[in-house]
Structures are given as C-alpha cells and as structure tokens.
Amino acid sequence: MPTVIVFIVIFLTVWLQGQIHFVLRPDLVLILTVILSVKLKKEKAVTWAFLSGWFSDALFSFGFINTFSKTTVVGLAVFLKKYLMWPEMQLAAFLVLVITPVSKLIEMFLLKGFYSENVPWWPILGVTVINLILTPLIFYLLDRPIQSENE
Questions:
Q1: For residue 38, with 0-12 CB atoms within 10 Å meaning exposed, 13-18 middle and 19 or more buried, which class applies?
Q2: Pairwise CA distance, residues 99 & 73, whole Å
Q3: Do 93 and 135 meet the contact criterion of CB atoms below 8 Å apart?
Q4: Does domain 2-142 have CATH number 1.10.1760.20?
Q5: How crowded is the C-beta side of 118, counted as CA atoms within 13 Å?
Q6: Mean per-residue pLDDT for 58-87?
Q7: C-beta of residue 124 within 8 angstroms of C-beta of residue 15
Q8: Which residues contact 47 (CB under 8 A, 6 or more apart)?
Q9: b/e map of 8-30 (b: 16 or more CB within 10 Å)?
Q10: 20 or 77, greater pLDDT
Q11: Which of 104, 103, 91, 92 is nearest to 34 (CA)?
Q12: How far is 145 from 130, CA to CA, in rounded Å?
C-alpha cells in the first residue's frame, strides 16, 4: 500500500508544480524527492526521483532536464545522508538548503548547453529560501503516510 500512496503523492505534486506560474516558484518536486531520500532506502529514493522527474518532463517540460537533475541530486542526498546522523526533519531541511541551488545550477547548465536558453541566476536564492520555508510543512504532511525505512 505505501507504494500506491507515494505514487499518488508524486503525481499530485508534479501536477501542482505545473500549475504554479510565478517567477519565484517553489520546486515542490525537489522537496518531495529530498524528503523521500531521507525517509526511504536509497534504491527506492532514486527510483522515485527518476519517476517524478520523468513525470515533470512528460507533462510540463521538454527534454529530460528534470529527470536528470532530480535523479542526480537525490543521489547526492542519499550519499550525504550516510554521513549526517541528524533527525529526519533537520536532515531534510539541510539537504533542501544544499541541494536546491545544485539542482537549479544543473538545470541552468542543461538549458544553456542543449537549448541555448539564457536562464537568470538571481532566482536561485529566492527558490532556495521558498523551498526551505516549505520543507517542514511538506515533511509533516507526509510524515504519517510515508513511513521511514531503516537501512
């Protein structure tokens, strides 16, 4: 049953992310994938990150920019999780603080390299702050439906 719940949560998050059209919009999919990387085993976390990035690209984007960036940053989150023995909430907030700029930089370089799009640098700080503010709320909303797995 938890797999169905995670799938529904990912689909709804990707849909909601596509409906937000602000310059400084939170990256809800990134927050979700980081929380999943904290709560789930590494194989499941990377699989869900790939799937959520793929859904984002299939529904609202072009290329495989979200797929690549979300999978890469969750791999980094899983790696960092092994060395940081913090409570889950603080770990998720720290990882969102570190990984949001990395994800946005990966997306910027991919857009510049493959599609010759100029993406401004200034929204990185704003998106990082917004993601950091929303992380505790989203974590507590998902704490009961998605149970932690010990590795």
A1: buried
A2: 6
A3: yes
A4: yes
A5: 1
A6: 89
A7: no
A8: none
A9: ebbeebbeebeeeeeeeebbbbb
A10: 77
A11: 92
A12: 24
Integer Rg of the chain from CA? 14
Extents of the domains making up the chain: 2-142
Amino acid at 38: V
| DSSP label at residue 121 | S
Residue 1 confidence (pLDDT) above 60 = no
Query: For the whole model, what pTM was predicted?
Result: 0.89
Q: Is 26 left (phi over 0), alpha (psi -120 to 50) or beta?
A: beta
Question: Is the pLDDT score of 35 beyond 70?
Answer: yes
**Separation CA 32–CA 138 (nearest Å):** 8
The full DSSP string for 31-84 is HHHHHHHHHS-HHHHHHHHHHHHHHHHHHH-STTHHHHHHHHHHHHHHHHHHH-
> Whose structure tokens read 């849909």?
15
Residue 23 identity (one-letter amino acid): V
pLDDT of residue 98 exceeding 60, the answer is: yes
Are 100 and 141 in contact, with CB atoms under 8 Å apart?
Answer: no
Smallest CA-to-CA distance from 99 within 13, 22, 15, 27 is with 27
